[in-house]
């Protein structure tokens, strides 16, 4: 590697000594000069065709949803970059953007609709797909839906959604309701619902936060690895290096993540023990009197009365913008000493005291990040509360250098009411309980304070298999691969095998598609489809378009517009015209007030409808004025004004309008849930596997991690994490994923690596390169051992993403037959953080490893 490239890399990501020792540092940054070089060499015009231009679009490689520009020549995508018009990330990007070229031009893409010819469904049965036309495929689907309605079983239809864009509501919600089913099932609870519990039940934000990294003085990350994953990778990987110059950075993660390798301190926490650390930091902050008084308030006498182990009188404290600090202290925090924390977590008490003091000094320019890794575990709701509470305690909420939600913007994400289009069958059907059992006693799924308000994605196959509340007969699914991406995916295989008819809208024949009756080939979201998305970071909320930019190679269609349009038309031809009438009477262009004339017009119309407040409404006060649709599609992105600091102080959307250390909002939600089932809140806690009793249920507190399996037989714990090259499940068939795999610290190229601490490996006689089996009480996978100090002894860290037995020639060893590597979900038992409905992916997974 030349000096020039090395220097560039160091400037971009202040490489720590630990990271320098690793073979695997930032791919994006080290490749940057090369990429820039290529970019400057791009001919302005294609020599033959005279074409060549940058077109705005949006990447959905991960939930960063970055605004992009694709360079198109002669109808082909040549290169990607961050959209230069974006004020969130500008031209910056992550390394994954380049993989999208191999996705869209993947030789294994589905090119035409297909139909199953083998009636036997199962992992071991080849569906023997044969091409059919769109007309034939949709004819079959329409017939199946109409047969359900005729048999008074409309509720046995389900619409299943993985990724989506903001035009999804027609197909996802309204069409499903008009057909007569309550079952629109999203993927949210295998994504990150537990993460939202702290922010919502403390400051009223059911969503993710942005972090003012440029102005911060202290970063404490519980599992977040924002250079590699999390929610705005392009922006944070650009700024993380500079933050090290003006902020202290501490990363808590059982594994030396990319971000931990570029932090001042890495704390290799035992899995699912984060709350101990968070609570002890809070305890020290109170005892030391270093909480942020302008946000939290102070004792009326001005004298600190927080003394370890001692209660404080409830009227002694004058709260400012927070609620219930003294209650929290008295209920539990008074006993959460650093010594207590050390006894559980082995993190030295002195380290905890130092972190708390440093945070107190940096306040309010303090930001505490939480990630799936810290909270997507059984009992994770309370870790989410404990970690986020620190943002309140140190005043980071809405402060310069702190943490804030997405800026307020206006989009028409809600489509016109479809209730008038519900006939008698539909009205009856939508009243059935949902198939995922949300809202039952054992699944509170308390989204936005509403019992049963959230989805329990991974429980859907359990509901289907036990026919509780009933069975599912017809499924239309898109942009999802749940038997691969949910814990114990075998449950999905079994459930899908029993479904009478399933249509899957997909780019590739994935594991989910394997169980389909018809396959509907999807346009690639980044290059071929109409859509719209948003993203937050750098104090800005941006909205960006997805638009067709290249020549479609195959007979593919837009999942969220063309497919439902053609299906609605088919249903109308067969006598059921409600969705068709809804399209033609309600889904009107915001300027011309005309309906779409054909399926290809609908996508653009819906994006115009959703985004019209940005470019049509001249009174839009939330961001830069835009003059026209043309300007929006040409620039590709709209930027909001910068976040107004302290804008929520005094008016948080909680029960008390304060930041709630004692969550009145959670108390109200749990009271409702308990009442719905005529039980006490303690009984809810018991059924749902939490240890809290009494008022402890409403404050951040310690819950012992739940572990699954016999400790003697399965003595180690799995630490699952995302790959820097995983685009959720969608980059698995790209050769670059495997060729550049060593951008994941510790991993080997072309292999599916399990990282083992040399101390553990020595005991087991395992060497780097050995093939090993990892087994848990629910399954076994095989992969390649790597000895690596960056993993806590007693744990094995492994990327999620490999182990495909379908998807394509690169993803699987033998398509349909043999997996390449191992899917972590095969060994992750199906468990939940029931208060949020989230699946547990961390903490409970006891494993054993052995050479094969
Ligand atoms: N590269 C990449 N980035 C992505 C995605 C992707 O597929 N690839 N997907 C996007 C999506 S869909 C989402 S929801 C977001 C999620 O982004 P995050 O919420 O940040 O979650 P993950 O990256 O899944 O978090 C896993 C991290 O937690 C660590 N971890 C595991 N167990 C524990 C534990 O007990 N305690 C602590 N403190 N850490 C633990 C793991 O080592 C890993 O670093 O990422 C998005 N970004
Ligand atoms: N062990 C473990 N499991 C995890 C995670 C983890 O970190 N560890 N992460 C979890 C998270 S955060 C999430 S969000 C979920 C994601 O899980 P899912 O929502 O299931 O998403 P993907 O696995 O990305 O599957 C998307 C599928 O859509 C199809 N597809 C691909 N590209 C396109 C396209 O452009 N258009 C359409 N219509 N279809 C397309 C393909 O069939 C692909 O398999 O996985 C979760 N599962
Ligand atoms: S993969 Fe994620 S971070 Fe990378 S460009 Fe796409 S959306 Fe942005
Ligand atoms: Mo996710």
UniProtKB/TrEMBL annotation:
It comes from Shewanella piezotolerans (strain WP3 / JCM 13877). This is Twin-arginine translocation pathway signal. CDD domains: MopB_Arsenate-R (cd02757), MopB_CT_Tetrathionate_Arsenate-R (cd02780). InterPro entries: Arr_molybdopterin_subunit, Asp_de-COase-like_dom_sf, MopB_CT_Tetrathionate, MoPterin_dinucl-bd_dom, Mopterin_OxRdtase, Mopterin_OxRdtase_4Fe-4S_dom, Prok_Mopterin_Oxidored, TAT_signal. SUPFAM superfamilies: ADC-like, Formate dehydrogenase/DMSO reductase, domains 1-3. Residues 52-108 form the 4Fe-4S Mo/W bis-MGD-type domain. PROSITE patterns: 4FE4S_MOW_BIS_MGD, PROKAR_LIPOPROTEIN, TAT. Belongs to the prokaryotic molybdopterin-containing oxidoreductase family.
């Amino acid at each position: 590697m030349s000096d020039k490239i090395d220097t560039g890399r160091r400037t971009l990501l202040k490489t720590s000594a630990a990271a320098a020792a690793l073979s695997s540092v930032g791919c994006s940054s080290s490749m940057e000069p090369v990429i820039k070089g290529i970019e400057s060499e791009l001919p302005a015009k294609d020599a033959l065709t005279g074409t060549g231009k940058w077109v705005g679009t949006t990447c959905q490689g991960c939930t960063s949803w970055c605004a992009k520009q694709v360079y198109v020549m002669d109808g082909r995508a040549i290169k990607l970059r961050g959209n230069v018009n974006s004020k969130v990330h500008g031209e910056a990007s992550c390394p994954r953007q380049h993989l999208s070229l191999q996705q869209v031009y993947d030789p294994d893409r589905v090119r035409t609709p297909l139909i199953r010819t083998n009636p036997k469904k199962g992992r071991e049965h080849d569906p023997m797909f044969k091409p059919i036309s769109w007309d034939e495929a949709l004819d079959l689907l329409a017939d199946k839906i109409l047969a359900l309605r005729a048999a008074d079983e409309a509720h046995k239809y389900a619409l299943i959604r993985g990724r989506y864009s903001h035009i999804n509501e027609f197909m996802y919600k309204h069409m499903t309701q008009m057909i007569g089913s309550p079952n629109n099932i999203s993927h949210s609870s295998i994504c990150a619902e537990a993460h939202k519990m702290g922010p919502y039940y403390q400051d009223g934000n059911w969503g993710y936060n942005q972090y003012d990294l440029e102005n911060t003085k202290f970063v404490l990350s519980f599992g977040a690895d924002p250079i590699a994953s999390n929610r705005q990778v392009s922006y944070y990987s650009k700024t993380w290096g500079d933050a090290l110059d003006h902020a202290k950075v501490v990363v808590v993660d059982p594994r030396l993540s990319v971000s931990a390798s570029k932090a001042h301190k890495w704390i290799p926490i035992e899995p699912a023990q984060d709350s101990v650390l968070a609570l002890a930091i809070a305890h020290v902050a109170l005892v030391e009197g270093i909480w942020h008084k302008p946000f939290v308030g102070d004792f009326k006498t001005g004298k600190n009365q927080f003394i370890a182990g001692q209660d404080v009188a409830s009227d002694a404290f004058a709260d400012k913008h927070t609620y219930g600090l003294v209650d929290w202290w008295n209920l539990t925090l008074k006993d959460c000493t650093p010594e207590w924390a050390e006894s559980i977590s082995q993190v030295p008490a002195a380290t905890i005291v130092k972190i708390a003091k440093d945070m107190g000094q940096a306040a309010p320019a303090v930001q505490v990040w939480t990630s799936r890794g810290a909270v997507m575990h059984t009992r994770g709701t309370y870790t989410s509360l404990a970690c986020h509470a620190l943002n309140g305690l140190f005043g980071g909420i809405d402060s310069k250098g702190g943490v804030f939600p997405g800026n307020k913007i206006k989009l028409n994400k809600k489509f016109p009411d479809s209730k008038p289009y519900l006939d008698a069958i539909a009205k009856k059907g939508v009243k059935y309980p949902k198939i995922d059992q949300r809202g039952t006693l054992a699944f509170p799924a308390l989204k936005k304070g509403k019992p049963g308000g959230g989805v329990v994605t991974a429980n859907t196959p359990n509901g289907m298999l036990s026919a509780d509340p009933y069975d599912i007969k017809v499924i239309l699914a898109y942009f999802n691969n749940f038997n691969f991406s949910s814990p114990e995916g075998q449950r999905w295989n079994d459930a899908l095998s029993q479904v009478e008819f399933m249509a899957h809208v997909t780019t590739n024949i994935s594991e989910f598609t394997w169980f389909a009756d018809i396959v509907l080939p999807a346009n690639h979201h980044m290059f071929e489809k109409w859509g719209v998305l948003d993203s937050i970071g750098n104090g800005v909320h941006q909205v960006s378009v997805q638009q067709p930019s290249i020549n479609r190679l195959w007979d593919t269609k837009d999942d969220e517009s063309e497919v439902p349009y053609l299906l609605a038309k088919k249903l109308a031809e067969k006598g059921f015209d409600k969705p068709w009438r809804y399209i033609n009477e309600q889904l009107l262009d915001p300027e011309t007030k005309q309906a779409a004339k054909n399926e290809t017009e609908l996508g653009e119309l819906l994006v115009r409808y959703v985004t019209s407040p940005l470019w049509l409404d001249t009174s839009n006060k939330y961001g830069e004025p835009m003059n026209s649709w043309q300007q929006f599609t040409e620039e590709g992105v709209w930027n909001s004004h910068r976040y107004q600091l302290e804008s929520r102080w005094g008016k948080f959307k909680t029960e008390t309008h304060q930041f709630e250390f004692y969550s009145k909002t959670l108390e109200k939600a749990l009271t409702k849930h308990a009442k719905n089932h005529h039980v006490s809140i303690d009984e809810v806690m018991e059924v749902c596997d939490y240890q809290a009793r009494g008022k402890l249920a409403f404050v951040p507190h310690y819950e012992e991690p739940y572990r699954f399996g016999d400790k003697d037989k399965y003595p180690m714990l799995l630490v699952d994490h995302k790959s820097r090259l995983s685009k959720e499940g969608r980059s698995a068939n790209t050769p670059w994923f495997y060729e550049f795999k060593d951008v994941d610290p510790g991993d080997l190229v072309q292999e599916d690596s399990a990282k083992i601490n040399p101390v553990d490996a020595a005991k087991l006689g395992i060497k780097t390169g050995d093939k090993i089996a990892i087994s848990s009480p629910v399954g076994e996978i095989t992969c390649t051992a790597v000895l690596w100090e960056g993993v806590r002894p007693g744990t094995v860290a492994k990327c999620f993403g490999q182990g495909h037995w379908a998807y394509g020639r690169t993803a699987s060893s033998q398509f349909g037959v043999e997996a390449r590597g191992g899917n972590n979900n095969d060994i992750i038992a199906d468990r939940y953080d029931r208060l949020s409905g989230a699946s547990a992916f961390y903490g409970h997974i006891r494993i054993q490893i052995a050479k094969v």
